[in-house]
Amino acid sequence: MKVPMMDYPENEGHHPIEPTQPVTPFYSGSDIPLTHPYPSTGYLDNPYIIAPPPPKKPHKHRFFMVSILVVALMFFGASLFFYLAATHQESVAPVAPTAVPTIPPTPGPTVTPTVHPYTAQDILNEMITHNLRVDGPAYGESLAYFFYGAPYDDVVSIPFQSSAIWGVAGSGSGGYCDSCVGLWVYSSYDVATVVQQKLNTDGSIAEQTPAQGPTPYPVVTHYGRCVANGVSGTPYAAIMQQFCV
Fold first, then answer.
1. Chain Cα centroid distance, residue 87
2. Percent of the chain scored above 90 by pLDDT?
3. Are residues 185 and 119 in contact, defined by beta-carbon separation less than 8 angstroms?
4. Mean pLDDT of 192-196
5. Residues 6+ positions from 38 with CB-CB distance below 8 Å
6. What pLDDT is recorded for position 50?
7. More confident residue, 102 or 122
8. N- or C-end of the chain: fewer Cβ atoms within 10 A?
9. CA atoms within 13 Å, Cβ hemisphere of 87
10. Helix axes 235-243, 120-129, angle to 10 degrees
């Protein structure tokens, strides 16, 4: 059974109360609703339940910064490595060797062979001392005493220092004698060697040429600076070998 609404004087001028919507609270000065940031897990209803920690923030930003730092360090290290390598290569660039002046060896003193000062007369005196026969010696005669004309002209022209001609069979050297021998002393061993060689060569030529009268042919003995004719195989040659040095 409905009970009719009664009009009361005190209600005059007032509207009846209508049902209202629940009011959502907002943060002060903003349109953001003030709601609990976490879903209900039951701990709000039970004060003895410990609330879980808030979720950790993602580390994407930190990882990105670390990656950039690592790449930068690698790039800097590579640049430093190439710079040091280029600097080292320049520092060890091959240096052209300095030419060392070649110092020629100091020449030793020139050894001059000792030339004993002897003459043909000195050698002849040694022969006399050794009891060898020396008849009518003559000094200063050239090879032309025995060898004259062609082909002896070249060897006769070679200068000598001293000479001696003597007889060995009882005749002196005055005029031409078949039994005479001769000795010539030259300035050096080399000059005496040349004289020996030319006398042998010229004698061979002379033997092939028809002789114009008596013609002597050289029988040469050579020791030291001495050249002798006609003493080969005799005691006179032994004295020459000993004293013609």
1. 30
2. 33
3. yes
4. 95
5. 51, 54
6. 60
7. 122
8. N
9. 6
10. 120
* Segment 162-179 mean pLDDT: 75
**Residue 149, amino acid:** G
pLDDT at 36 over 60: no
Sole residue written with tokens 């290569």: 89
Q: Which two tokens stand for residue 59?
A: 């580390």
For the chain, how long is the longest CA-to-CA vector?
213
* Best-predicted range by mean pLDDT (6-15, 35-44, 45-54): 45-54
